[in-house]
Amino acid sequence: MTEARTATATRGTSESKVEITIDLDGTGASDIDTGVPFFDHMLTAFAKHSLSDLTVRSVGDVHIDEHHTIEDTGIVLGEAIREALGDKRGIGRYGDALVPLDEALAQCVVDVSGRPYLVHSGEPEGFSLHRIGGHFTGSMVRHVFEAITFHAGLTVHLRVLEGRDPHHIAEAEFKAFARAFRAAKRRDPEVVGVPSTKGAL
User: How far is the C-alpha of 150 from the C-alpha of 114, rounded, in Å?
Assistant: First the structure.
């Protein structure tokens, strides 16, 4: 019988309270509520395109800024991913994706390496200052990927190749990450044990 790859992670601070449950072998079902509508949209896209069932409940001081809630949610999501991956036996380990959204195009490569590293480039000038939907600052896209990769133990290379509309750019990035992660986490019947010469990831 195949072992379930599920996890629940929580975090509570004076700035936010976050609880996340993830099933890496789901169908892409999601129930997301962070109090930041555009971020909910991005996490819903991540669940759908990574084929991970995801439940997120985040309550934070969004009356001050969305930053704390988004960062802490990214931290907890990374922790849940790391726990759900377990010892990583039998996974593909690597995944890559090239995803368009109208004029935007993003590319992502994921290595379930156990070594956190993010290379992120290509967002156009001014993107980081734009308020997507009036409440989600463009700079948070990179910030949330930093939180996820560091706490999940992933190596991620993510770059924007084309794009004009900030919504499209951000969504293409999240979808590219989701598709690359989907391939990397997938169980590969040809892989015996942990896919590393070190014997551990």
Answer: 9
Max CA distance (Å), the chain:
51
Per the rule left: phi > 0, alpha: psi between -120 and 50, beta: everything else, 191 is beta
Of the candidates 85, 80, 77, 79, the one whose C-alpha atom is nearest the C-alpha of residue 4 is 85
A 10 A CB-CB count for 92 gives 17
Over residues 56-103, the pLDDT tens digits come to: 999 999 988 899 999 999 999 999 999 999 999 999 999 999 999 999
> Could you give the CA distance from residue 105 to residue 79 in angstroms, rounded to a whole number?
28
pLDDT in tens, 170-180: 999 999 999 99
Note the Cα 113 to chain centre separation in Å. 15
Sign of the CA dihedral running 162, 165, 166, 169:
negative
For residue 5, give both structure tokens: 């790859």
Contact between 82 and 115 (Cβ < 8 Å): no
pLDDT of residue 1: 58
Question: Given this model, what pLDDT does residue 2 score?
Answer: 75
Q: Where are the alpha helices (DSSP H) in the chain?
A: 37-50, 67-85, 139-152, 166-185
User: For 4-50, how does the pLDDT look when each residue is reduced to its tens digit (9 = 90+)?
Assistant: 999 999 999 999 999 999 999 999 999 999 999 999 999 999 999 99
